[in-house]
Amino acid sequence: MGVRLMVVDDHRLLAEALASALKLRGHRVLAAAAPAAGAAELVITRAPEVCLLGTATPAEPGIFDPVVKIKRERPQVAVLVLGPVPSPRGIAAAFAAGASGYVRHDERIEGVERAIMKARAGEAAVAPQLLQGAFSELLNPAAQPDDEGQRLLQMLTPREVEVLVRVADGEDTRLIAAGMGIAPSTARTHVQRVLMKLGVGSRLEAAALAARTGLLDRAGPVPHSAPDAGPGLGP
């Protein structure tokens, strides 16, 4: 007996191809749509037995929020995540959100169909090795990598952080000095210290590093004085 399905994926061609293949195998595919703001609502409204929900980034925070919403509103709908080769953290996140299984994008149609039948029967539909990795990750979570932006921010004094923000804003030494009320020589010294601490050789490299690591977002904006403001004498 065929299963009432929905296929939702941001690659529309993939969704339509999979939907067509499943129809040929006797299943009733209710929709094949690219995920958007209303994807979860569509699943909730149509209430299939099983939903295949595609994702390209299974480890991204919040990526499984639609699963949470679907399971909250329609707990009887089994959700199968369709995605790339996942990390154990991605598998764990999918199950934590309420998914019934995980199917790789490169799985053969027979494997997809087996996963669908397991999900409808209330079983976990995931390859044993992926499931084992997920449980290992849950029991022994890996340490989170250091936040490079936060680490760099802690290396700088508050005044050096302000200098870096001004450098990233394109201010030259004269404008930095005027904006901070310090002498140009002091401003140059601060700039050199910032470059040395960040391990870069130019202001452009410093600005690029700060932007890439999110340091600028953490530092926040700084006040800017008019270009003709006179510099002070002290640091």
Automatic annotation (TrEMBL):
Gene3D superfamilies: 3.40.50.2300
CDD domains (UniProt xref): LuxR_C_like (cd06170)
Key words of the record: DNA-binding, Transcription, Transcription regulation
Keyword DNA-binding on entry: yes
Any one GO MF annotation of this record: DNA binding
Biological process according to GO: phosphorelay signal transduction system; regulation of DNA-templated transcription
Recorded superkingdom: Bacteria
SUPFAM superfamilies on file: C-terminal effector domain of the bipartite response regulators (SSF46894), CheY-like (SSF52172)
Domain Response regulatory: 4-120
Coiled-coil region list: none
Domain HTH luxR-type as annotated: residue spans: 149-214
Name this protein carries in UniProt: Response regulator transcription factor
